[in-house]
Write a structure and sequence with these properties.
A: Pyruvate-ferredoxin Oxidoreductase, domain 3, 4 domains, 8-stranded mixed beta sheet, 19 helices, globular, B: alpha/beta, Rossmann fold, iron-sulfur (chain B), PFO_beta_C (chain B), metal-binding (chain B), magnesium (chain B), EC 1.2.7.11 (chain B)
Chain lengths: 558, 282
Amino acid sequence: MYNLLIGGAAGQGIDTTAAILEKLFKASGYNVFSIKDFMSRVRGGHNFSLMRFGAQPVYSHSEILDGIIALDNDTVKLHKNSLKEKGFILCDTELTAEDERMLKINMNDIAKKIGNPRVAGSISVGAVLKLFGESLQHVEKILKTSVKPDYFAMNIEAVKAGYDAVENRFRHIDGKYADNMLISGTDAVALGAAAAGVKFYSAYPMSPSTGIMESLAAKSNKAQIVVEQAEDEIAAVNMAIGASYAGVCAMTGTSGGGFSLMVEALGFSGIAEIPLVVIDVQRPGPATGLPTRTEQSDLDFVRSASQGEFPRMVIALRSAQDAFYQTMRAVDIAERYQIPVIVLSDQYLGDSLSTVELFDPKRIKPARPSSSYTGEEYLRYRYSESGVSPRLIPGKSGQAVVIADSDEHDEKGHITESAEVRTKMVDKRMKKLINLSKELAEPDFIGEEKFNVLLLGWGSLWGPIKEAVELLNKDGDRKYAALVFGDIYPLPKKVLQEKAETAEYIINIEQNATGQLAKLICEETNIVFDGSVLKYDGRQLSGEEIALRIRKGEIKND
Amino acid sequence: MTEKFCTYETAWCPGCGNFPIIDCLKTALEELDKDPSTVLVAAGIGQAAKTPQYINTNAFCGLHGRSLPAAVAAKIANENLTVIVNTGDGDSYGEGGNHFLHNIRRNVDITHFVHDNQIYGLTKGQASPTSMTGLVTGVQVDGNFNEPLNPVLLAIAAGAGFVARAFSGKKEHLIKIMKKAINYKGYALVDILQPCVSFNKLNTFGWYNKRVYELPEEYETNNKIAAMSMAMEFGDRIPIGIIYEQEKPVYHSKNKILANGGPLVDRQTDTAVIEELLKSYI
């Protein structure tokens, strides 16, 4: 397993170089996992991309580096302490920073000789390939899809020049991942939506959720999806509700700030029983917070957002696979229960790339509304055992007219203030939770069957927690296991209670300051926590950091 | 009234301007030979926004100020629906002001009938965006001192293709305007002046009736500058009729996906396309 950092200022081409290398490593058979750490600015500052690759599965990032590509002096200064003793810092001879591990090549001069200073990035690509024992066999194929045709020949020449400029240091290991997908959480959500039959996506740009809208827009003509940039998030969510009412599978996406504007409509979806899927790609709040960084601090908020009481579901995404399949499932559940389903992602998951098996769009077949009804008069909100009433599509169901109402209403949909109808309608809606609770997915169990310490987490900490459990179980007397929640509200309790009973210690691991999962579990069970590992600086916990903090006993007690 | 679109018991005050407006809407739909199951009447919240409750069509009673985004999305979903928004001046120009502006830009083929009584009725008599200066209310105790919005002028300036003003007291004229607005291809705004008998003691039936006059036959509706001047006439005399009309490309023709292939609601997801997209990530 190798770990490479590419760092520099915004606008220096980190993303392009990283994207080419990620593709090249995957093409050579490696499993790749990469994250982006960038500031909220278009030029300058310090940004980096962190890329792990190897022949075995990779679930998260690591802070122990084998190599650094430094595009500026800051990169050397900020990251050299994370570099292994035998690691390298590849950079141009113009850099003034000093370190005995530096590997300086006059990339800028070579690039100028080749004909364009911008091909310097490709020189570093070539050098990295040589250092890690890779061949040049996939270079032409990958560059064809990554650079403009006019610059193709120059870039090939640059890769070769870089390759020839250094000696090999690390050994290539054969992996079996060349035919897998290399995909970000963001793209996986967009594809999940498209596969689920979403035909209308309305949103207002907000980091880190904008990528979903852009990804769907790029696919919109092929997949026949109308992507509408709304004037604000209130419009975005009300548009999604309007399209859904009219029979089109619809979705909206935002981050916490935009979600705050959507909350009234969330309750509208609840009372009017109009299927709605909202994805909240979390970033650190409150208010503007840290726009381009990560946090898991919206759980409390989304599970109680909007006035009044109505059934809802919250699903947290744990991985790129989850991002695809759980988005499909969210669409299906929203339709079958006629409720709002909130999908929680975050910047870490959205922006990270991972190598995954090709998704199967046929695994989940989302439900669609019916086009006929039985009975003499069509009643949109007919009382039923399950709480779900027949949903017809306006203009598509014979002579029936379909009424949607944000006021309390009778079975037909007409406004009412009857105490009896009100009580029956609230009961009808809340009854949906009975069947929903039966199909909740239990949390993912990780680690040894016989354990002393149970770690509890949710969402995108799945990967880091998985790696932490592996690290912790490598040595020491205590054995560790973890439960990582995907379906999180309503809270699936069966496996949680089983495992909690046998645990000597229970520790929650969360990317927030108040332990929101622990709070939810305390509300709903009698489980007591012995400590917590919390982080809220906008940077994701790594498996190493979790293991270290647990070993040191640096756990913050609630 | 009409059998097709039914008559319901309402919660409006006797003498409310909403009665003639809903009667005219039913007559207009009947005369246009619309089928109730293909019409969607949408609204937000307010006295006027109760309109969808009192007409036999598909009905969308949404959130305060948010009827426009929901209505345009319903039209995007199914172009075969006749989508009409009936709601008040507060819902349309106050709480929903941003949506009003931006849906003019989208130009989705829907009709927007604003029941404009220059007051908030549902919340019992506070100033609305169109209230005149000097109007004394329970909140504006020293008289409203904010400039009233001129929605007709604003809509023309923002690029709307069909902008009209009407009066609930001139029913034949209102029906004629409503039919033209519904038939117009694109976003059509009709600002319908109506008295609020309970709360607006300034702009009464008599106040409007004395001032409104129908635009003459020879008035040319396609001159934007002239239309803006006409829209600004709101005082001793108030012109009613189509102030501005211009053909414009509608959303459904501008959007490549909607322009071909029939209503979005009828389109199926092609698994082969999804598989091809997935494979592009290998």
